[in-house]
Design brief:
There is one protein chain. By secondary structure, this protein is of the alpha/beta class. It has 2 domains: about 35-180, Rossmann fold (3-Layer(aba) Sandwich), CATH 3.40.50; about 190-345, NAD(P)-binding Rossmann-like Domain (Rossmann fold), CATH 3.40.50. It is built from 15 helices and 12 strands. The chain has helices at about 5, 10-25, 30-35, 85-100, 120-135, 155-170, 190-205, 225-235, 260-270, 280-285, 325-335, 340-345, 345-360, 365-390, 395-415; strands at about 40-50, 55-65, 70-80, 105-115, 145-150, 215-220, 240-245, 250, 280, 290-295, 315, 335-340. The chain has a 7-stranded mixed β-sheet with strand order 9-8-7-6-10-11-12. The chain has a 5-stranded mixed β-sheet with strand order 1-2-4-3-5. The longest helix is centred in the C-terminal third of the chain and has 26 residues, at about 365-390. InterPro entries: Aminoacid_DH-like_N_sf, Glu/Leu/Phe/Val/Trp_DH, Glu/Leu/Phe/Val/Trp_DH_C, Glu/Leu/Phe/Val/Trp_DH_dimer, Glu/Leu/Phe/Val_DH_AS, Glu_DH, NAD(P)-bd_dom_sf, NAD_bind_Glu_DH. This is Glutamate dehydrogenase. Belongs to the Glu/Leu/Phe/Val dehydrogenases family.
């Protein structure tokens, strides 16, 4: 299949989804002009001394889409395909996502165009600290709060926090979330995105009168979100038929042993060759006959060329932007129930909010309390979106965007424009 057919500009997708939802709620032109576009975009040069002594130049980005409802919030990703348009799209989606779960944050996103798999820990640390120093004017606990994303983790956040704190002269844990527990991180943060995905799947199954026990599942992307969601579904009695990562796909018609697969992935770094499984092709996973499909990798996994092959009843978007607008229309015509990304994967930013609150209060919560709060937030948001879906007879994605955009629009209308 030609690459040009399946490539979709993520920012164009974000703008199309915005316009569709804005039209659905009858948003006036003036408000659209105030909330549609990013507030700030920073492109930075990131020179890094590599282990061989040579200087290599990387390009970094930080985009703040909105601070209308609170500090900008969003992850930082390290990936060879990071572009400004991708970061703008992700920042935009973060704005609506925070509003959907009704937490007092706006949207931001950051990234560096690099291949972290080809870099040593020392190179990654030096790159992270240089990038942090370049975006210092934008970030801060009351201004813009980064978090982990694709190929970044708690160690990355520790480096960012330390770099920021050293410039201020004292420790400021609230500048990032997703930190190690020993540096002010929150219990439950590591599994928050996957747990939120699980909670929304529970709600979808209840709405569709499906039993989660015995339900069949395919997971594209076995990183943090995909593996945690698979683990929780496995524990709930679902049968995980297939899983993929960047190395390949594994399948077992009787269900994969997810705890053992997670252990192997942690040890070897891949799922390929998992015992008691057979290899399948990536497109076979997406077209698998199953109850629940979880795209948990990168954008544009389902597009006009392959959406027609989907046979799942529910698609839970653990990734950001895995379905293009053209694919959405195809899936809608097929009657597939889609849990949109700005609802489905909002567990991560929700527990990031909990972490930020704990850092600001210098008072930390028990894991059970965090899980209970996350359950309440995610299921309340699902019900709010489902209500719009049913009352307005619009797809779940449009319903979620209507809810998020409507809340941001209300805030900007009340605040007005300065000066």
């Amino acid at each position: 299949m030609p690459t040009a057919v399946i490539q979709n500009n993520a920012y164009d997708v974000a703008m199309e989804n915005f316009d569709t939802a804005a039209n659905a709620i009858g948003l006036d032109k003036n408000t659209r002009e105030m909330i549609k576009y990013p507030e700030r975009m920073l492109l930075v040069s990131v020179p890094v001394r590599m282990d061989d002594g040579c200087i290599h130049h990387f390009e970094g980005f930080r985009v703040q889409h909105s601070s209308v409802r609170g500090p900008a919030k969003g992850g930082i990703r390290y990936h060879p395909q990071v572009t400004l348009d991708e970061v703008k799209a992700l920042a935009t989606w973060m704005t609506w996502k925070c509003a959907v779960v009704n937490i007092p944050f706006g949207g931001a996103k950051g990234g560096i165009t690099c291949n972290p798999k080809m870099m040593s820990p020392g190179e990654l640390e030096r790159m992270t600290r240089r990038y942090t120093s370049a975006i210092l004017p934008l970030i801060g606990p009351e201004q813009d709060i980064p978090a982990p994303d694709v190929y970044t983790n708690s160690q990355t956040m520790a480096w960012i926090m330390d770099t920021y704190s050293m410039t201020k002269g004292y420790m400021i844990p609230g500048v990032v979330t997703g930190k190690p527990i020993s540096l002010g991180g929150s219990l439950g943060r590591n599994e928050a995105t996957g747990r939120g995905v699980f909670f929304t799947i529970e709600c979808a199954c209840e709405h569709l009168h499906m039993s989660l026990k015995g339900a069949t599942v395919a997971v594209q992307g076995f990183g943090n979100a995909g593996s945690i969601a698979a683990q929780l579904l496995y524990e709930a009695g679902a049968k995980i038929l297939a899983v993929s990562d960047s190395t390949g796909c594994v399948y077992n018609r009787d269900g994969l042993n997810i705890p053992e697969l997670i252990a192997m992935k942690s040890l070897c770094g891949h799922v390929e060759g998992f015992p008691e499984s057979e290899p399948i092709l990536p497109h076979e996973l997406l077209a698998m006959h199953c109850d629940i499909l979880i795209p948990a990798a990168l954008e544009n996994a389902l597009h006009a060329e392959n959406a027609g092959t989907v046979r799942a009843k529910i698609i839970a978007e653990a990734a950001n932007g895995p379905i293009t607008p053209a694919a959405d229309r195809i899936l809608e015509s097929k009657g597939v129930f889609v849990i949109p990304d700005i609802l489905c994967n909002a567990g991560g930013v929700t527990v990031s909010y909990f972490e930020w609150v704990q850092d600001e209060q210098h008072l930390f919560w028990e894991a059970a309390d965090i899980y209970k709060r996350l359950d309440r937030v995610m299921k309340t948001a699902f019900r709010d979106v489902l209500k719009i879906h049913l009352e307005k007879n619009v797809p779940m994605r449009i319903a979620a965007n209507m809810l998020g955009i409507g809340r941001v629009a209300e805030a900007v209308q009340i605040r007005g424009i300065y000066p």
